[in-house]
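Structure (tokenized):
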């Protein structure tokens, strides 16, 4: 497990900055998906169910002013700046996230 901190700034306004703390990169990526799903619920309050694909998630991420992941590998903090795409966010059919490296 790699302790991970997600830093989010939804708009250009710095007072909107927030963070979330996770026990692993996978949990952090699930948190990004949950953040998007909460956004969809707010935008579609009368819809009983909402579906989306990965390209819509990436568009949401692109529209954020900033999204950064700080990942601690074996006690050394490795900075992963930029969009969650940097973490190669993809969901397989089992609902797990696939990464090109072994974490």
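Design, position by position:
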């Amino acid at each position: 497990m790699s302790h991970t901190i997600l830093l989010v700034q939804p708009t250009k306004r710095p007072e909107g900055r927030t963070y979330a703390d996770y026990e692993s990169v996978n949990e952090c990526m699930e948190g990004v998906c949950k953040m998007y799903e909460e956004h969809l619920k707010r935008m579609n309050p009368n819809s009983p169910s909402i579906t989306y694909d990965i390209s819509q998630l990436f568009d949401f991420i692109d529209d954020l002013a900033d999204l950064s992941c700080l990942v601690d590998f074996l006690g050394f903090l490795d900075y992963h700046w930029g969009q969650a795409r940097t973490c190669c966010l993809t969901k397989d059919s089992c609902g797990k996230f696939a990464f090109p490296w072994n974490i």
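Reviewer-requested clarification: Residues 25-43 form the longest helix (19 residues). The domain at 4-98 is CATH 3.30.2260.10 (ERH-like fold).
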